[in-house]
Amino acid sequence: MEQQSAQARWEQLTQRPLLALAVVFAVAYAVPIVDTSAGHVLTQACTVVEWVVWGAFAADYVARLALARRRKEFVRGHWLD
What we know:
The structure is a single chain. The chain is mainly α. The chain is 79% helix and 0% strand. The chain has three helices and no strands. The chain has helices at 6-34, 40-67, 71-77. Helix 1 packs antiparallel against helix 2. The longest helix has 29 residues, at 6-34. The model has no long low-confidence stretch (mean pLDDT 89).
């Protein structure tokens, strides 16, 4: 039986939390659009949430890149990530 690579274990471990963050991002993005009367504080809070989620996704990409055995192939195959 072959053991999973560190990258595969990382992806399996972070799949659901990243999905949850994607939903949080979608809500934070939609609130100021749907609720045009949203106050400045709510709009700013949504912007902060969006940037934090972007940061989490960037950190995930960097972690997966660091764990990849063939980094050039990883970048070519996951450029959209």
